[in-house]
Amino acid sequence: MSTATKKAVDERLYEVSELTRVEGEGSLRLRVRDGEIVEARFGIFETPRYFEQLVVGRTPDEVIDMVARICGICPVAYQMSASHAFEDLFDVRIDPSSRALRRLFYCGEWIESHALHIYFLHAPDFLGYPSGIDMAADHRPLVEQALRMKKAGNRLVAILGGRPIHPVSVRVGGWSRAPRVAELKEHRAALVEGLAFATETVKIVAGFTMPAFAREPRFVSLKHAAEYPFSDGRIVSSDGIDLAPSAWRDAFEEFQVEGSNALHARSRDGKGAYLVGPAARVTLAADQLHPLAKEALDASGFAAPIRTNMYASIVARAVELVHAFAEAIDIIDAYRPPAEPIVPWQSRAGVAAWATEAPRGLLFHRYEIDEAGRVKSAQIVPPTSQNQAAIETDLVVAAKEVLDLSHEAATHRLEQMIRSYDPCISCATHFLDLTIEEA
Amino acid sequence: MASHAPVAARPRVGVVKFASCDGCQLTLLDLEDELLSVVDHFEIVDFPEASSTRSAGPYDVLFVEGSVSEPAHLERIVELRRRTRTLVTIGACATAGGIQALRNWGDHDAFRSGVYAHPEFIHSLARSTPIAEHVTVDAELRGCPIDPGQLVELLTALTTGRRPQLRDEAVCMECKRRGVVCVMVSKGIPCLGQVTQTGCGAICPRFGRGCYGCFGPREQANAAGLTRHLQMAGDRPREEVGRLFAGFTAYNEPFRSMVTELGGVRTGRTGPAGDTTTTTGGKA
Hints:
Chain A is α+β, with helices and mostly antiparallel strands.
């Protein structure tokens, strides 16, 4: 699907009309004239599904079920941002055990998503295979281990939510059902095995040859004083932004770009592109990493390269795998079922807004709730929308390193760069309200 | 035919998407215990989410995820059908139009301009429709998402050429077999279990809530009877009952009629847009 043609002596076009090993439908296009990059575009042609319109008129619990369907890889993230937003507006204090289960839920999703991306979407680029499945021909034990790790994450989500994709149990106020201690304990051994292989994974991916790349982006993530960021903390950036998780719009905005079915996001201060996701979290919240994950990061020697080499995001993702397994085990060891899985709550009119950390980065939801407890308007800002500007900025950086390669190799390298972001295009193609227009 | 085919001649399989969340095709990658043996039996020739190796067909088996939702989809599904021997739709989007089919009751232009400042850049159809409205479908797996056990059963059946054994009964039967206490009887929670096709393992009742119909209506479902019960027993307003049906499979009958009759979706019209089956319905 890639074409690389020399139009004239001095003009080159690198184009991939349909990116593979990404979630959803996107394209890349880079034009270089006399060594100058004249166009760098990460296009999104996934069909819009209008979620922000579909949820209007629905109740908060219905919204939690509906928004999961924005993304089959990270449904938990959508349920978490929505439920926390509603609980914040309705002033619901969920049981501390329910809160711990929410973290455990997120651990499961991060494991499943990161294991999928590292071994099935991204590692094939470094090892020279078209897919993780093809990789299995030469690296069967590695791929089998990766599948077991992914399964451990999926199983965790299923224990809590009934199934790994579009789980059913998250409700405003807690859970429709909380697991018994024994159900979680039975899964502990699989998590211990996963932790060992995740630690090994950090070493494996740190051994990959990283293409040259140097740009330090602005990082944005949640940050919490005592926890690695999942569903709580403040929105911070590497250059001083510091906001409540409900206040994303104070510093950022969305706008529409022709040729893309996804809205882009940018900061209101005019500084433009910023990066969300594992590299941002590992950079901004390194102090809150589980000691085992911190140890793996330090031993990898990648704490610094993660900041400046986008290709090294695979190491950040692996470090977070270690964190998610280690924290999951800790939560299970300390688990006592909540007195009641769900606490009673009362709707009230107002704005429900919250940001949590999806596997791919900050995910902001905002709902206006009316007197009848129904959604009046909605805005959903997924991580990939926020990363689009950074991706296009980095295409320019990456392009400078590939001009001496063959067209095919160069095109492949650019695809690899885009995959470093783990873009989730189904997420990005959504559809918001129109409060934000081009200034 | 093909009696002399070498063992190595595995069926050529494609996995493609239309408007969807990717969760159903992900279910294939989530067959962690079976994935490597699946590829021993099938040659996956096109699966862009998982592999950079591409093929435009022909396909012995094509798994189609997602609903027909934009003008380009209309031609694409017909073209794919031409190149496919066995076409299998997977999931609520492909088999029922998906959650995005809720727009079928609404004003498409308003939806578009409600989301995008420049709606003229956006190409989508007024209705989101199931694949079977456009081409012949040989087999379907229901659910939002599909059930991994049903997927394995279908794959196994394909290797031997037999019919897949998929239970054809209501979610209620699954609850009874598993000894799950009925949430509607014991707690008064509205539940679509009696009108919904099984396949999920009765997850929602097992997790203390009512079924929300993500596997779609089962044949001959008495949705009107359930509606009367919910309205009378629970003293619920019509629109609240309508919203129960206005979920991931709302566009399949008889859920569709219930939504049209009772309300529960954003509309502006009294029924779904262009409410006749057509392969060209909708406007850009």
